[in-house]
Amino acid sequence: MSEDDATTPEDSKLTRTKRAWARDGKFLTGRISRPETERLPPGQHLVKNWPVLDLGVQPQIPLSAWRLDVTGAVENRLSLNWDQFNALPTSTFVSDMHCVTTWSRYDNRWQGVSTHDLLDLAMPTENATHVLLTSFDGYTTNLPLADFAADDAILATHWEGEPISTEHGGPMRLIVPHLYLWKSAKWLREIQFIPADKAGYWERNGYHMRGDPWREERYSDD
Ligand SMILES: Nc1nc2c(c(=O)[nH]1)N[C@H]1C(S)=C(S)[C@@H](COP(=O)(O)O)O[C@H]1N2
Ligand SMILES: [Mo]
Predict the structure, then answer these.
(1) Structural domain that includes position 191
(2) Mean of pLDDT values over 47-69
(3) What is the CATH number of the domain that holds 64?
(4) 109/128 Cα distance (integer angstroms)
(5) CA 167 to centroid of ligand 1, rounded, Å
(6) Which partner for 217 in 19, 177, 205, 208 could form a disulfide, CB atoms 3.0-4.6 Å apart?
(7) Is residue 145 lining ligand 1, measured as CB closer than 6 Å?
């Protein structure tokens, strides 16, 4: 950790602060809306810049050492190197992002491999209901398979036509536009398909298992 004496991410100032927000229900407006009627989710404000948020370790991953493993409840387990990943069909989507710390940023153009195309390859088995994501910095996050499989969810390598920078999760990060951005794992290393939900890093620290911004699913209910 860089900014304080914490020895584990759990002890860091960032995590302690965000645990307190979850405990106190900070930023909650109590409003529910829908993306069809309101582009900006409740309690969010627009930014033009693109803030960087992570646990403080930004791994530099040489492309020769990069791998993506697809494990768990799938017909075809995969372990792709960078060339194999880049040989997959590519898609381009434009979407908004919404961070639980209340900033939103519109119209981001992502290029990469759609989760649809990855799912066609891996073929989750019938009992797979959720995915647990693990990144090169040790970060984890979980989401329902149906959300991971959203039409505009993408394993992104490019943002606005340029390779995604290291600080924003390059060489490859997930983008699931319709959930809070903490579900969009940077520096993605492994996608595990699982038969029951399992909390990732922020989910163990007071944050919601699903994280729908229009329902303000910021924090866990208990
Ligand atoms: N690997 C990894 N992915 C991560 C994080 C992290 O710490 N490590 N932080 C999450 C959080 S809380 C947010 S808000 C977004 C921030 O993405 P950005 O830095 O590109 O804005 O990344 C998410 N993905
Ligand atoms: Mo976040």
Answers:
(1) 13-215
(2) 97
(3) 3.90.420.10
(4) 30
(5) 9
(6) 208
(7) no
Give the confidence band of 221 by pLDDT, cuts at 50, 70, 90: confident
pLDDT confidence tier of residue 6, bands split at 50, 70 and 90 = confident
Ligand 1 centroid–CA 72 distance in Å is 24
Query: Does the C-beta of 185 come closer than 6 Å to ligand 1?
Result: yes
Query: Residue 104 in contact with residue 33, Cβ under 8 Å?
Result: no
2, part of any domain = no
* DSSP letters for 106-135: EEEEEEEEEHHHHHHHH-B-TT--EEEEEE
The answer to whether position 222 is within a domain reads no
Closest CA to 217 of 88, 59, 31, 69: 31
Q: How confident is the model over 119-159, as pLDDT tens digits?
A: 999 999 999 999 999 999 999 999 999 999 999 999 999 99
- With contact defined as beta carbons under 8 Å apart, do 108 and 176 qualify? no
Is the predicted pLDDT of residue 118 greater than 70, yes or no? Answer: yes
Domain count, the chain: 1
168 in ligand 1 pocket by Cβ < 6 Å? yes
Is residue 221 situated within a structural domain?
no
43 C-alpha to ligand 2 centroid (Å): 14
Q: Is residue 65 part of a domain?
A: yes
